[in-house]
Design a protein that fits this description.
Quinone Oxidoreductase, Chain A, domain 1; 2 domains; six-stranded parallel beta sheet; 29% helix; Rossmann fold; binds NADP nicotinamide-adenine-dinucleotide phosphate; seven-stranded mixed beta sheet; alpha/beta; 9 helices; 325 residues
Length: 325
């Protein structure tokens, strides 16, 4: 039997208005797959990178964006033994999540603990696991280190501020505008720089003249070269995004100014390791359930995905946004 569901899809790359509601006919799950009825779907900048065409489409004719979601299993394909119909689950994987239901390989799926809502799970599978690898794998933060984190009031930023406090770091953040700075201060950041009002390099140097052990930069084009200048000797720059556009003017020789380390990590290279996925999810869910990380989530109907993209790209959102089918 083939069930009828709906998705939000684009037929060509472009602005948010290319996202349109469309019918989706879903075959039964194949071997090794499960079918999930989505209850909440996270919105992420990577969805905008695919929608706009910055990232190439897996199928040039059609894109269903969306890289994290939570829901319940409604069918199990042959050979799947670890998951059952009715299980509450979540996953993160690029594309195809903006849909009322989907098939997905069971290897990407984790079971949700009791007490973790679908909305919260869909807010943190991508952003929270990203935070985990940023702070513990890409660069291993130590208690007491000096850290600068850009876009501190964003989806990843608010989780990172709180997680850095758990590690024993008192991070400095940047954000655009006083309201975002206040929000970041109540989510773990010790000091904020409003980088719309002041030059963040000048402000960061005044705060930490010896330079930072690590700078986390997801803004890219507008910030990256100055971020390098905020580091102490042997400091690490973790560039994990490009919300302001792709970096084009960086030269390897720029690292010679302080024997700096630079990495450009991608979440899915961590989550493809099943053991890492299980361990990191368990750690993330534990921190949320015991109240050490609070998750700030806005919800919107799945049918309003285009408006949510416009808001995210227009720097209007804070924290996580999830779409409800
Ligand atoms: N590599 C990975 O594995 C990975 C995984 C997850 C996320 N990411 C990246 O992490 C970043 C944060 O993702 P998110 O979904 O949580 O988004 P977000 O931080 O909630 O939103 C992006 C923020 O970037 C800031 N920004 C600065 N310049 C901007 C510009 N010109 N246009 C738009 N925004 C600008 C804005 O905050 P202000 O107004 O405060 O400047 C905006 O709110 C994104 O770059 C994303 O691609 C990477």
């Amino acid at each position: 039997m083939t069930d009828i569901h709906y998705a939000i899809a684009a037929a060509r790359p472009g602005g948010p208005d290319v996202l349109q509601q469309t019918e989706l006919s879903l075959p039964p799950p194949a071997a090794g797959e499960v079918q999930i009825r989505h209850r909440a779907i996270g919105v992420n900048f990577i969805d905008c990178y695919f929608r706009s065409g910055l990232y190439p489409w897996p199928d040039p004719q059609r894109l269903v964006p969306g890289a994290e979601a939570a829901g319940e299993i409604i069918a199990v394909g042959p050979g799947v033994t670890a998951l059952r119909e009715g299980d509450r689950v979540a996953y993160t994987l690029p594309n195809n999540a903006y849909a009322s239901a989907r098939n997905i390989a069971a290897a990407h799926v984790v079971i949700l603990p009791d007490g973790l809502s679908f909305e919260t799970a869909a807010s943190v599978m991508l952003k929270g696991l990203t935070t985990r690898y940023l702070l513990k794998d890409s660069y291993r933060l130590q208690a007491g280190e000096q850290v600068l984190f850009h876009a501190a009031a964003g989806g990843v930023g608010l989780l990172a501020g709180q997680w850095m406090r758990v590690i024993g770091v008192e991070p400095v953040g940047t954000a655009g505008g006083p309201a975002k700075c206040d929000l970041a201060l109540s989510n773990g950041f010790a000091t904020m720089i409003d980088y719309r009002e002041q030059d963040f390099l000048e402000a960061a140097r005044a705060l930490v003249p010896e330079g930072f052990h690590a700078v986390y930069d997801s803004v890219g084009k507008d910030t990256l070269l100055k971020s390098l200048k905020c580091l102490r000797l042997h400091g690490s720059l973790v560039n994990f995004g490009q919300s302001s556009g792709a970096v084009s003017d960086f030269r390897i020789a720029d690292l010679a100014a302080g024997s700096f380390h630079l990495t450009r990590p991608v979440l899915f290279h961590f989550t493809s390791n099943r053991r890492w996925l299980e361990k990191a999810s368990e750690e993330l869910f534990g921190l949320i359930l015991d109240g050490r990380i609070r998750v700030q989530t806005q919800t919107a109907p799945l049918t309003s995905a285009a408006q949510v993209h416009a808001d995210l790209e227009g720097r209007k959102t804070t924290g996580s946004t999830v779409l409800i089918p």
